[in-house]
Design brief:
The protein is built from 2 helices and 13 strands. It is mainly beta. It has one domain: Glucose Permease (Domain IIA), CATH 2.70.70.
């Protein structure tokens, strides 16, 4: 799968280059397949993490900054909106893309915990860099979790269907093979140690 300009587009669309955006910051629990939570009691997840959580970054002054609920989310590649459903922190938008790096069909990207634009509906055609949503406002959530984008990538199987698509669908390996998005978003990152105090201030 070819790399995406996703991070560069997010920086540009949100004016983050003025403050500097050195790289993504991940606490334990934010990365793909992590068994741990990065919020609340920092205990174990019910299921391994199906993607990555984007909300922290390092600026040019080496300070850790947070993205907020006004952060605009660009789509990673040209595609079509195939499904949308409520998740526990907002709405998940599911987009299907042609896999131009090979002849192996399509792949899907999922943007979870968002507040979609009014014109982002099932069937909408989107172009690389189009703004599809902002981060969901999580201030009143029971989990007391900060705004963030959960970003997942997957390769659907031949038996896959968008009919009745819900969150649990992506946990079914017979339906979707999940991929680690880190290499695809193509940007420097740093994974903090589990004891790092910055992760316990979230």
């Amino acid at each position: 799968m070819e790399k995406s300009r996703f991070t560069k587009m997010l920086i540009e669309k949100n004016g983050l280059d003025r403050r500097g955006f050195e790289g993504w910051i991940f606490c334990q629990g934010m990365l793909f397949n992590s068994p741990d939570k990065w919020w609340g009691d920092h205990g174990r997840r019910d299921f391994p993490h199906e993607g990555i959580d984007l909300c922290l970054y390092l600026d040019h002054s080496r300070r850790i900054r947070r993205l907020d609920e006004y952060t605009r989310i660009p789509v990673m590649h040209d595609g079509a909106v195939k499904a949308m459903f409520k998740d526990y922190l907002g709405t998940t938008v599911v987009i299907e893309h042609e896999n131009s790096a090979s002849d192996s069909g399509v792949f899907i990207s999922l943007y979870a915990h968002t507040n979609p634009r009014s014109d982002i509906i099932v069937g909408a055609i989107v172009k690389e860099g189009d703004i599809i949503a902002t981060f969901g406002d999580t201030r009143n959530s029971k989990s007391r979790i900060i705004p963030h984008l959960h970003f997942s990538l997957g390769k659907p199987s031949d038996s896959f269907s968008y009919e009745g698509f819900v969150w649990n669908t992506i946990r079914t390996p017979e339906m979707i093979t999940l991929l680690d998005p880190l290499a695809i978003i193509d940007w420097p990152y740093q994974a903090l140690d589990s004891e790092d105090t910055a992760c316990y201030k979230l």
